[in-house]
Specification:
By secondary structure, this protein is α+β, with helices and mostly antiparallel strands. 18% of the residues lie in helices and 32% in strands. Strands 9, 10, 11, 12, 14, 15, 17, 18, 21, 22 and 31 form an eleven-stranded antiparallel β-sheet that branches. An eight-stranded parallel β-sheet has the order 32-30-29-28-25-24-23-33. Strands 1-2-3-4-5-6 form a six-stranded antiparallel β-sheet, with no helix packed on it. Helix 8 (432-449) runs parallel beside helix 9 and helix 11 (586-598) runs parallel beside helix 13. The two termini are 51 Å apart.
Amino acid sequence: MFNRLVDAGKRSLAIAGTLFLGVPALAGEPLFLLEDKHLQVGFSQRDGHLMQFTDRKAHWNHIADQAIPIGLWKLELLGDGKKIGLTPAEAKQFRHERGRERHSVRLSWTDFGLKVSPQLEVIVEAKLGPERAMSYWNIRVANLHGVVLEKVRFPQVPAIRPQADEYLAVPVWMGQLTPNPRLLLAGPAGKGKRLEWDYPGLTSLQCLAFYRRNGPGLYFSCDDTASYRKTFAFWGSDGGQVNYELVHLPENREVDTYTLPYHAIIGGIEGDWFTAAERYRSWATNQIWARESRLASGRTPEWAAETGMWVWNRGCSAGVLDPAIALQKELGLPVSVLWHWWHGCAYDTGFPEYLPPREGVESFTNALVRAHQQDVRAIVYMNQRLWGMTTKSWKQEGAERYAVKAADGTVHPETYNTFTKLPCASMCMGTQFWRNKYAGLAEEVYQKLGVDGIYMDQACSSLACYDPNHGHPLGGGRYWMEGFRLLASDIRSRCAGRREVVLAGEGCGEGWLPFLDLMLSLQVSRERSAATGDGWQPIPFFQAVYHPYCILYGNYSSLAVPPYDELWPTNFAPAEPLKLLDRKYSQQFLLEQARAFVWGQQPMVANFLPTQLRERDEEIGYMTQLARLRSRALKYLQMGVFVRPPELEVPDAMMPMSRLSIYAGQQGALKSFERSYPLVLGGAWRAPDGNVAVALASIACEPMNVPLVLEAKDYGLPRKGRVYRLSSSGRWRIGSFTGPRVSLSVPMAAREACLVEFGR
């Protein structure tokens, strides 16, 4: 019932115009308010839990009535060898008062009755503004004598009020969106499910959005510029309740006082995930990782920036470099190679025993020399954190000592190879031993074998390590990112010379922008790896924030069955590795290529053979059309800012989707499903010169007219200007525009792509 603003005339006991006492609240419980012209935030007078978070412009309280309130915070402590969970409910004393800053409040909880730490105190400070509907939260835990602070769950937001047409957007690497988060969080039995995402790592930036499409929404973020370890989490509870929390792992657990070294942020938005991305971008692109990014600072080697197409093949040089040379002749643009299975060890079991190359040093280096003569470059696979636990080097070098340890002090093996089921351990980036080991291997591969760069698999991820002998804080802190900085710097120093080494990573992450030249973003091919019907779809969240600051590349779009590592057991090998897939999956290939194009990535093809130029000429022709067009539009698609994608009113079509990984073998047949997708995809870009272009890619088998409507103010368009059409073959004027809205119909042939440019 209290989802609307409380009448100001009914308030009492005003304090300095920002804090109000005695206002009636849900279930008759009194609350006090912190407010400005954008927000009203209501707290329980009893224990300080959130009862109201009202966006005044939208007239919407985001917190629903809840039967079981959730405390504003929760501490996980260790005292006398026992785990202790502490919440505001345990405090016998609770105080609230006006903060020192305008539109701020200070809350404190004391007298918890803890024998091991009797003076413990929790202090929360919250402030609003100064612009837009934003609130900033900090927590301090004082007098921690006798206990160790392991985790801080703060702030906790209970019972997000249900709305129709809800969405949840999360920057899992490139980004993903679910259109029914409440159902997802209810779990299969309706008893609730928890979803969480670690940062830095799979969460590539610090911003999530839970919203109603074009309606009120919540913006969750923080302003951490040092990449402290944390976890964003939503969970469902009884009755369809959806809750949120931000979990912090203190860098120094054994301290007298812990203060959160940044603000947790909760804001109100009206729009969608892109609205949230724009808000975050206004802050994030002013931070050190953007200012010192490899691309923005001009340190990315030219050949990497100029690559027109990537080939992702596996095995010896004849099956990797030769196809790339053939494709380059067909394409007429620079082709580079992402090279897996070059190494002398079995994939996903024998790391880091990469050397010598499986085809021998002489054959490998000679093949690279020939490729370089054709201007084809190669980066080679080297996982930057896995060590096979059954390798000779694991025991000989005592690697277990330097592996990541869980809180129980043990190594938790990771098993990827479903054929051998041999375990790997994750090595700790906070140890000099592992950094020296990896950097030494990278130096030898680069300097002696002549490769052009290193693909550092699993780079944009991090783990919490609790080994006290590693010399880093236990669990939380900044040591993983600091370790990666030292590793990248060491590799570049060792590889210095006439050439400059390219470092590429898997996934994407803002903290890695100063260290990596390339970021592999495979979410454009999400259907090939994700569980069918998991409720998520890919979105270009990271591009919307950081596109001009890094080169995103990657695609697992393939026209063939994956290859099989010759070093794996032969009894699991498929009868025909690299056999062409059924043509019914061709549109999946087109969809993946179209996504990469309109979302501004360098194009890539996996499992490519020169025979596909003839046997799948239509699909390869579409791919090369996009690559050539991209090469003519780099000021938009590589140097431009990603702006709001246009809403295209185009038909959808049901398409067969294939799922077949490298671990299918004889044990698993190709899995497939059908899903509906739009027949034309679009993305919008603002070039450094201020011009705006909309990239369109049709995957339809028939021609169609695509209606394009843009609000001039949303794209920074002038009051009048000219419209041009850019294709892979040329550019010509197609009209002009004037006024606050641009509306035109774009004719497109079957499987055609173009850019529609709007200039002064």
